[in-house]
Design goal:
Layout (H helix, E strand, L loop, with lengths): L4 H10 L3 H6 L1 H9 L2 H45 L5 H4 L6
Helix pairs in contact: 3-4
Length: 95
C-alpha cells in the first residue's frame, strides 16, 4: 500500500513514521471525494492528528532524556566524592 502524497508530506513535516500516516489513509481518501468545505475540515482533522502525535512523541523523548540525565547526575554525585583504593591508583601502570 503506497502512501498518499498528502500523508507523505505531513509525515515528513511532523517527523512521523509512515505507519502512523497509513492509519489515516481512509480519511484522506474520503476527503478527496468530499465537497470542498468537508474536505477542508477532514484535512484539518488529519493534520491535527499528526501534530498531536508529534507532540506526544516529543514529550516521551523529553521525559526519557530527563530520566537519563537524572541517572547521570546521581552517578556523578556518588563518584565525585569517591576516593579510589590504593590498588586502583596503580592499575593500568603495570603495578
Amino acid at each position: 500500500m503506497s502512501l498518499d502524497p498528502i500523508l507523505d508530506d505531513l509525515a515528513r513535516r511532523y517527523g512521523l513514521p509512515a505507519e502512523f500516516a497509513l492509519r489515516l489513509l481512509p480519511l484522506v481518501g474520503r476527503a478527496r471525494v468530499a465537497p470542498a468545505d468537508v474536505r477542508r475540515r477532514i484535512l484539518e482533522l488529519v493534520e491535527s492528528s499528526f501534530a498531536r502525535e508529534a507532540r506526544r512523541l516529543a514529550e516521551i523523548r523529553l521525559r526519557r532524556e530527563g530520566e537519563e540525565d537524572q541517572a547521570l547526575v546521581r552517578v556523578a554525585r556518588m563518584l565525585h566524592g569517591w576516593r579510589p583504593p590504593a590498588w586502583f591508583e596503580g592499575w593500568g601502570k603495570g603495578a
